[in-house]
Amino acid sequence: MVGDKIKIVVADDHKLFRKGIIALLEDFDFIGQINEASNGLELIELLEKMGNRPDVILLDLRMPVMDGVEAQQRIRKLYPDIKVIIVTMEDDEQFILHLINEGVNGYLLKNADPDEVELAIQKVVEKGFYFSEDISKLVMKGLVGKDKHDMSIVLDLNEREVEILKLICKEFTAAEIADKLNLSVRTIEGYRQKLLDKSGAKNMAGLVVFAIKHNLFHL
Questions:
Q1: Do strands 56-59 and 31-37 pair parallel, antiparallel, or not at all (unpaired)?
Q2: CA nearest 172: which of 135, 217, 123?
Q3: Which residues, 6+ apart, have CB-to-CB distance to 151 below 8 Å?
Q4: Which of 58, 144, 209, 211 has its CA at a distance of 20 to 30 angstroms from the CA of residue 127?
């Protein structure tokens, strides 16, 4: 994305909130094309028509016709490269974990500061995921009491894979990891895919949750 403007779709059924977010985004110099949708079905239809699809979708959960949960599931199947940031007031830790496991890249509460919205979009595009401090605490709370020691999975990871997983959790990009370990970016991307396959995670956000759950990384 270096040198490119980020293309965004805002999907929310509350017009006032949607227009407010769009006005905020227009103030960010790294944002390019902005489209909008008032429900999940309208969002899917919009994506089908767009020749130049968005990099990021800011997605509300509670919408008529088709809610954000179903829309996210369809997007993951049809357009897996599009990053999805949930923007909602829903703060139940188990629900957040479920959505991360389903493949969302970031999660923002609707009372977030404008600076956090800006940071979340940049992090999701550059690193593949974004957890605010509040969401990180909720994720940790949701993992308390869970089985964190499925050794059959952890032991299947070799030393290099664990090393790269920890760097991913520290928000290193593939290029940064490659530089640090004196490996090619293609090699790192290969390792990332192996980590996704072995962990069952759907993206980098899911890998972070996997690492935390199995005591390989601590927020």
A1: unpaired
A2: 123
A3: none
A4: 144
* Contact indicator for 87, 60 with CB cutoff of 8 Å: yes
Question: What residue type is 111 in one-letter code?
Answer: N
Half-sphere exposure of 169 (CA within 13 A, CB side): 22
1 confidence band (pLDDT: 50, 70, 90): very low
Q: Delineate the domains of the chain, giving CATH numbers in brackets.
A: 6-142 (3.40.50.2300), 147-213 (1.10.10.10)
Q: Are 47 and 78 in contact (CB under 8 A)?
A: yes
Q: Which of 79, 60, 119, 72 is closest to 100 using CA atoms?
A: 72
Please state whether beta strands 130-131 and 106-109 pair in parallel, antiparallel, or not at all (unpaired).
Answer: parallel
Residue 216: what pLDDT? Answer: 83
State how far the Cα of 48 lies from the Cα of 42, in Å rounded to an integer: 10
